[in-house]
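FAQ

Q: What does a record look like?
A: Structure on top, sequence underneath. For example:
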């Protein structure tokens, strides 16, 4: 009976706090001591609420970190987690905007890289030919696309 009273008091104290682990331990002890079913049920609800709050805080931090980074998959995962733990819609909406921006930047970088590769290939092809106008045009495109400096220098030398 003393164990039951002590466990019930510890459970009541823990249920009034914010520490998930302390509440878990007190709940287990109260269950083992044969605590009151209503008290146990309330404590279990409190524990569930505290766990949900902890998961939300953790997801919010992960979302903030992912938004400030450049990793698309990390941001997608953080958004999915945030949605699963029902984080506020503004934070998720902001994260989705950041994700869209990152994807746009990635697509632009990929397009620029393809343009650079195509321009470098065209320049190499033109450098092997005899048409000065084609070489000039290919050189200009390679310069605009940010082509390799050595390749550009060789093509300019060829033109001289």
């Amino acid at each position: 009976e003393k164990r039951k009273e002590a466990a019930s008091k510890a459970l009541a104290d823990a249920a009034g706090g914010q520490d998930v682990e302390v509440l878990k331990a007190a709940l287990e002890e109260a269950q083992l001591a044969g605590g009151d079913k209503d008290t146990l049920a309330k404590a279990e609800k409190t524990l569930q609420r505290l766990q949900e709050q902890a998961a939300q805080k953790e997801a919010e931090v992960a979302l903030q970190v992912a938004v400030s980074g450049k990793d698309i998959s990390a941001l997608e995962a953080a958004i999915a987690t945030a949605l699963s733990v029902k984080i506020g819609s503004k934070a998720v909406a902001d994260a989705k905007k950041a994700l869209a921006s990152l994807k746009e930047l990635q697509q632009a970088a990929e397009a620029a890289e393809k343009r650079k590769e195509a321009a470098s290939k065209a320049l190499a092809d033109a450098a092997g030919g005899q048409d000065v106008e084609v070489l000039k045009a290919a050189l200009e495109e390679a310069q605009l696309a940010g082509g390799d400096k050595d390749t550009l220098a060789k093509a300019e030398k060829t033109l001289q």
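Q: Is there anything notable about this one?
A: The radius of gyration is 32 Å.
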